[in-house]
């Protein structure tokens, strides 16, 4: 994984706490805000709104789609730590100001909290999702 060890550990702690109590304790929320900065609260909002969908093809390939607060659908790849939103390109890749955008953080949090919607698609549908993203970017 591409996250720093401290971020990985925090996400593990959140998952453990959530499994035990169905909530995230305040100290872990503070840690989230400390490590991920301004993306923490909006990411939690996206999780609360159940905006994260895990898209799985028969081959086992997985990607995530996150319905952003603007109503736009963003494709996230947790395997390589990438999101198609403009904030990721600017804040994470160009400026290195953030570890990740709120969409990828929402993916990690929804995994930890078991809050992902599930969508099974054919290989062709998955390919179409990927091609649609490329057309928008190009």
Automatic annotation (TrEMBL):
Superkingdom as given in the UniProt entry: Eukaryota
Q: Any keyword Kinase?
A: no
Q: Which UniProt keywords apply?
A: Metal-binding, Zinc, Zinc-finger
State if Transmembrane helix is listed as a keyword: no
Query: A single Gene Ontology molecular function, please?
Result: zinc ion binding
Q: Which GO BP terms, alphabetically?
A: double-strand break repair via homologous recombination
PROSITE patterns referenced in this protein's UniProt entry, alphabetically: ZF_SWIM (PS50966)
Annotated InterPro entries: Znf_SWIM (IPR007527)
Q: Where is the SWIM-type domain?
A: 74-112
Q: What are its GO cellular component terms? A: Shu complex
Xref: PANTHER family: ZINC FINGER SWIM DOMAIN-CONTAINING PROTEIN 7
Listed name of the protein: ZSWM7 protein
Task: Report the source organism.
Answer: Helopsaltes ochotensis
At the highest ranks, the source species' classification is: Eukaryota, Metazoa, Chordata, Craniata, Vertebrata
């Amino acid at each position: 994984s591409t996250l720093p060890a401290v971020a990985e550990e925090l996400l593990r702690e959140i998952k453990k706490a959530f499994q035990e109590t169905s909530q995230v304790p305040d100290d872990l929320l503070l840690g989230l805000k400390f490590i991920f900065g301004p993306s923490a609260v909006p990411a939690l909002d996206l999780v609360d709104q159940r905006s994260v969908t895990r898209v799985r093809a028969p081959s086992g390939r997985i990607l995530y789609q996150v319905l952003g607060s603007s109503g736009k659908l963003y494709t996230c790849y947790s395997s390589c730590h990438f999101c198609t939103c403009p904030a990721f390109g600017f804040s994470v890749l160009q400026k290195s100001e953030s570890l990740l955008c709120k969409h990828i953080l929402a993916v990690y949090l929804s995994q930890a909290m078991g809050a992902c919607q599930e969508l099974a698609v054919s290989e062709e549908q998955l390919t179409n999702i990927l091609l649609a993203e490329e057309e928008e970017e190009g």
